[in-house]
Amino acid sequence: MVAYLGSPSSRHLWFALSLTFAAIYALLAMMRAFSAEFVIQDDARQHVFWMQRFTEPGLFPGDLIADYFQSVAPQGYAGLYHILAPLINPILLHKLLPLALAIVSAAYCFGVCGEILPVPFAGFAASILLQQCLWIQDGLISATPKAFVYPLLLAVLYHLLKKQVLATGLAVILLGLFYPQGVLICSGVFVLQLFWSPRLLVPPLKPSPPSPLTRGEGESPPVPWFPRPLVPPSPGSPVPWSPLVGLVAGILVMIPYALSASDFGPTIAADAAKLMPEFLPGGRSAFFGEDPWRFWFSSRGGIRLSLEPPLMAFGLLLPLLLKFPRQFPLAPKIHRNIAILSHVIISSIALFFTAHLLLFKLHLPSRYTQHSLRIVIAIAAAISLCLIIDALWAFMQTISEKKHRIGLLPLPALLVMGLIFYPATVKNFPWTGYTIGQFPALYQFLQQQPKDIMIASLSEEANNLPSFAGRSILVGREYAIPYHTGYYNQFRQRLLDVIKAQYSPDIAPVKEVILKYGIDLWLVDGGAFAPGYLEGNSWLMQYPETAEAIDRLKANTLPAITPYLPRCTVFQTNDIFILSAPCILFGN
Predict the structure, then answer these.
(1) Where are the beta strands (DSSP E) in 471-540?
(2) pLDDT at 210 (0 to 100)
(3) CA 502 to CA 388: how far, in whole Å?
(4) Taking burial as the number of CB atoms within 10 A of a residue's CB, which of 73, 115, 318, 336 is the most buried?
């Protein structure tokens, strides 16, 4: 049974297990998605809410927030939701997609690893490590564009390694339609594949004893290839059609992005961003001012290399293990395809620093490393684990006394158990980031209002209203994304106007905001007029207007809107009040 772990005939078993674990993790998350009537993933509140327009065209008319997030949605991503909208509501679809994305990612991860080390257990280990990594953060679960980078980037790598020309080109096009930054990473890989190739470092080794991962059927190990150093391909070598076609496909799919101009541009300049509180420590999109370690490794500007689950750290050992092929008998079975891991790393790091040089023009630098390096580290860790387990088994065969061999069995067993049972050690696995609506009566009340109403509020609950009630809000923390000035200058002015109005001792600013922005309803938290309400809100505390409001509240100067709460409230639930804007304007 031990010898069966890596036999060719076991490939289907390990592949099925890979898909099974991916499906189990996704189904656990799906249980939370359907645990209440009003549930949505945190990031989906930005990227999915506006898609309700596909099922109800009258929603969010002239809505700045909805128009902006629709404009930045990749065409393939928006198109998928649009095509399926007649069958599945977008809010429902975003809860179902992670299951499909997880299974496809697991399948391709298994396949990519198999093209590097043809040991089925390695593919299983790579797949399960990547899945565990993805289900403790908010990438896959969100069903936003970044969720698609994993199956599609892995698809590109798999078809590239298989030398499947048309499939490679198609996968690149799909990646560009869903996550354009991924195409830039792949383009770097294609260039490296076209102009550099790994060199043979060591001669073939003699056949090694049977191991639990290789079955030892008497075959000679293949020629060992390793990813360093890189040398130009020799003249007269076959034309590498897959990377060539992939590169052309990448250029073609990126041309529309390069030629199109955002309706909400331009992108903010780095010098301007350094002066805005939104980009400073404590800001909504903090980027500058972090300590160097955090800035370069874990912030929005950092590489964000993930070593969770802990076994992912074994991926860092792979270059060292490959220096000792005789100590690790499975090493000679590693194919020269392993060079693709170094190609992905080189391309990702190069784009990471390019994004820093062109700050915000290519969006956030971390976009070019956090996803691709997760894939690389998962595959490298799986290969390392296989090398170590196989080496331990080979060492055990050299021990003459059976009791001593049995004493070493717990070592590989612990590694396998750590791989499989890691989720049991993690609180709230899988992590979903789902937001559960706490005020169903509020959402139902707003759903009964006209579709074109506009709601002003500084409440955190306002962030949920576009998704749960399908109604427009003037501002909300979740939508305060400051990268495009054409959008954010308008958004920021709206926010400052609402802060000034809600906490003004004069009712005139309130009426001015109502008329200026066409406000129909004003949502106020019951505790909104206590100083601590504002002091505990890091988003609002970015602005001087908030400090002024706190000073007035501490001086017992009540905002002019407070007397309107009793007579203009049209709906109340718990500690949330909905005020009629016409009532505030006309006093009736």
Answers:
(1) 472-473, 521-525
(2) 53
(3) 64
(4) 318
